[in-house]
Design goal:
252 residues; alpha/beta; eight-stranded parallel β-barrel; 15% strand; globular; binds phosphoenolpyruvate
């Protein structure tokens, strides 16, 4: 069966001292919380990955990066290779976040290459998909998400696909305070699962964790996570405070 997963995307927030404090706060609070079957992941800026992974040893969260290079190594100034993440025992990495698609013009083909790099180095990709507002208003959300999933992921074998986590993040809901309704989330998650079932079979589809992202917070997490195809969340703003993040993580 698939896992419940709650992952925090810190984006480009927190200086070193603040990051250290937030991690320490999480570690302390996790000592008295029973997360049962929920996998907690934090994705801080790359500079703080080591800090986070050093402190995650005795607690209950795993650490993920926010992006990775599509290349092996070499003259790519500013980039981070999957082999480097692997050498630091990082287990997860977000790929294809809408902010990277929008501001760095990332294509589905590049995202596919990043996924390949991560799998080659035994990291689990958290692959983001989701439509912008104009696409939703034109009722093109299914077409857009299908293209992102097919072009970004469907070159994988079923065995490789078993390592993929998908995050459905309607772009109009990210950082806007405007959340998808539980019905909208469930409808898209069920659609994504049906695409996976068509390509890889029912068992692979049933085992794939599909997370919701977009203004998920303590006040709405319960109703979103109550849906049968919503297996957790990718959390931006609300992952920057330990209490909010943990309230979401305990909303199943
Ligand atoms: C995100 O950026 O992945 C995200 C879901 O952000 P927020 O929760 O702030 O909408």
């Amino acid at each position: 069966m698939r896992n419940h997963i709650v992952a925090g995307n810190w984006k480009m927030n927190k200086n070193f001292g603040e990051a250290d404090e937030l991690i320490a706060d999480l570690v302390e609070k996790l000592e008295s919380i029973d997360l049962v079957d929920t996998q907690l992941i934090i994705c801080p800026p790359a500079l703080y990955l080591e800090l986070a992974s050093d402190q995650s040893d005795d607690s209950y969260f795993m650490v993920g990066a926010q992006d990775v290079s599509e290349h092996d190594s070499g003259a790519y100034t500013g980039e981070i290779a999957a082999s480097m993440l692997e050498s630091m025992a990082i287990d997860y990495c977000i790929v294809g976040h809408s902010e990277r698609r929008a501001y760095h013009h990332e294509t589905d083909e590049q995202i596919a290459r990043k996924v390949d790099q991560l799998l080659k180095h035994e990291l689990r990709p958290i692959v983001c998909c989701g439509e912008v507002l104009e696409e939703r208003e034109a009722n093109k959300q299914f077409e857009v998400v299908k293209r992102q999933i097919v072009d970004g992921l469907f070159h994988l074998t079923a065995e490789q696909f078993a390592n993929i986590i998908i995050a459905y993040e309607p772009v109009w809901a990210i950082g806007t305070g405007k959340t998808a309704t539980p019905e909208q989330a469930q409808e898209m998650h069920a659609y994504i699962r049906s695409l996976i079932a068509e390509k890889y079979g029912k068992e692979v589809a049933e085992n794939t964790s599909i997370l919701y992202g977009g203004s998920c917070k303590p006040s709405n997490a319960k109703e979103l996570f109550a849906n049968p195809d919503v297996d957790g969340g990718l959390i931006g703003g609300a992952s920057l405070k330990a209490d909010d993040f943990l309230a979401i993580a305990t909303s199943f």
